[in-house]
Design the sequence.
């Protein structure tokens, strides 16, 4: 149990590990290490989605630590509904999904 300070109040924070759901995963995503690690197959041509086993409900504050081990142009983290969600297409293109993403642009300048 950890304590976090939010708006000058001490709030107990419980650390709960989140595991990915093998049955709620795009066909070109691979889940390993008992649901702790996910990566894309080399032939992934479109964004796919995967759902964690944990449901986000009630009025709690949820915080994630996302570790990206390889360089990639795009990374997305978000939430989705447990029903009417297609894991074969991007979550941000569905009414039952919401994502926060980043685009990495690398600029190489040649100094003369």
Sequence:
């Amino acid at each position: 149990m950890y304590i976090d300070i939010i708006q000058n109040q001490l709030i107990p924070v419980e650390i709960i590990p989140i595991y990915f759901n093998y049955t709620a995963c795009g066909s070109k995503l691979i889940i390993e290490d008992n649901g702790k690690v996910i990566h894309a197959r080399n032939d992934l041509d479109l964004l796919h989605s995967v759902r964690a086993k944990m449901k986000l409900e009630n009025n709690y504050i949820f915080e994630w630590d996302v570790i990206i081990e390889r360089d990639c142009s795009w990374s997305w983290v978000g939430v989705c509904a447990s029903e009417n969600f297609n894991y074969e297409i991007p979550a941000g293109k569905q009414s039952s999904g919401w994502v926060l993403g980043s685009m990495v642009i690398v600029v190489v300048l040649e100094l003369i």
Q: What stands out?
A: The chain has a mean pLDDT of 76. The chain has no helices and eight strands.
